[in-house]
Design brief:
Distance between the termini: 24 Å
Helix content: 25-40%
CATH class: Alpha Beta
Number of domains: 1
CATH architecture: 3-Layer(aba) Sandwich
Number of helices: 6
Order of helices and strands: HHHEHEEHEH
Strand content: 5-15%
Structural class: alpha/beta
Largest sheet: 4 strands, parallel
Radius of gyration: 16 Å
Length: 178
């Protein structure tokens, strides 16, 4: 995430990175969703305090994105114009399903999903129909050959830096369209 934050800065997007309490304590198991969602709200408040008046996006990588979407589905996040998900975890590995995305219908702002085509936590056969049902405010950008961490096979000839540039540029272009 540190490298991704640097790449976002390269294209003019400031970021606020934070950890969930379970991460701070060095635990492997996530906190209860209510605690994680409260953490998201606290981070959004801090970002608003630090960058008042700037256009605000919220989101995260994997679990962070899911907790952000759940928080936004329960109650809109103050001043947030859109949500960005870097590898949304639609299901557990080897357990395809779309139940983890049911709450997305209650998100009131535009959403951008960046997903690797080899992501074992989001089978695109399940994700695409779900996102289509969400309507025109939902955008999917596929990272060809990318896994859940956007790592691509060497045979693609693409470097990790190229993937990060693609992600950052996609987020910038999408955010400018809001």
């Amino acid at each position: 995430m540190e490298a991704m934050a640097r790449q976002f800065a390269e294209v003019g997007i400031a970021t606020l990175r934070y950890n969930f309490p379970y991460m701070e304590k060095g635990h492997r198991s996530p906190n209860a969703p209510a605690i994680s969602q409260a953490t998201v709200r606290s981070a959004v408040k801090l970002a608003n305090d630090l960058a008042e008046g700037l256009p605000m996006l919220a989101g995260g990588k994997s679990y962070g994105g899911r907790m952000t979407s759940q928080a936004a589905a329960r109650k809109p996040l103050v001043a947030v114009k859109g949500l960005v998900f870097l590898g949304f975890p639609l299901h557990a590995p080897g357990k395809p399903g779309s139940e983890r995305g049911a709450h997305l219908h209650d998100v009131a702002v535009p959403t951008l999903f960046l997903q690797g085509t080899r992501d074992k936590l989001a089978d695109l056969i399940l994700l695409k129909p779900l996102l289509k049902k969400l309507g025109s405010t939902t955008t999917l950008h596929e990272i060809e050959g990318g896994d859940h961490s956007f790592k691509v096979l060497k045979s693609t000839g693409r470097s990790p830096e190229e993937i990060m540039i693609e992600i950052a540029t996609t987020v910038k272009n999408w955010s400018q369209s809001l």
